[in-house]
Amino acid sequence: MRFILIASLLLAVGAGSPPAAADQKEAQLKIALDELKEEVVVLERQVRGMQESMDRNSGQMGALITQIADNVSAIRQSQGRVAEASNSAITQVGGISESLNATNHRIDRVSEQIADLKKIVENLPKLPTFTSITPGNPDQLFAAAYGDYSRGNYDLAISEFRQYVETYPTSEMADNAQFWIGECFFGKKKFDEALVEYDKVMSAFPKGDKVPAARLKKGMTLMELGQTDAARAEFEALKRLYPRSNEAALARQQLGER
What we know:
- By secondary structure, the protein is mostly helical.
- The chain folds into two domains: 2-122, Four Helix Bundle (Hemerythrin (Met), subunit A); 138-254, Tetratricopeptide repeat domain (Serine Threonine Protein Phosphatase 5, Tetratricopeptide repeat, Alpha Horseshoe), CATH 1.25.40.10.
- 77% of the residues lie in helices and 0% in strands.
- The chain has helices at 2-14, 19-53, 59-90, 96-122, 138-150, 154-167, 174-187, 191-204, 211-224, 228-241, 246-254.
- Helix 2 (19-53) packs across helix 11 (246-254), helix 7 (174-187) packs antiparallel against helix 8 and helix 8 packs antiparallel against helix 9.
- It is globular.
- The two termini are 28 Å apart.
């Protein structure tokens, strides 16, 4: 689904969108690419965990790990091509009347690349369910939590992400784990609980790279709760504190700014 979103955003940008709308589409595209990168990181962590625990005599497991590693490599290569081509297309928006044909050609190429990328991901094995997690293995714990989140096992994912944050609070992925706890509650439509968890991202990891995303989702959660004024205040704070972030562009969209 995320690949379809990326493709549609690219087509929208290349189709002569007004500058403000194009900025919003660009922000959405970059956030989607960031989420794709995070999924790739999870896959890589799973590969390393399986490689460490693999029985050397299990040829079938070895073949599976090789397949996953090859697919992750292909995703990274395709991802790079998508990012490069999309940035090139976006720079043409200002002069769209003179370069529409060239831009459309680039969009066609990117669409083909996304289709290829989607096929690669569809062929990846499903995220495995860990029957047990090796003590002291943060990568395996995060991968297990993210896998449960992706399957909609929110309660289990919350428990695993909490364990990660409590056990590895200084890890570079700790703020990510805290953010995904909020996302789990948001997915369960428990918006009050989600607000608490998004706030923890900002208070416990004020310099973390998930803070802008947490502020954006906090504002959207407040909207779900009907707290319009508080939501607008959150979006305004996001614009003020992180004016050049992709999330700030989406905050402006939420505020109806052009």
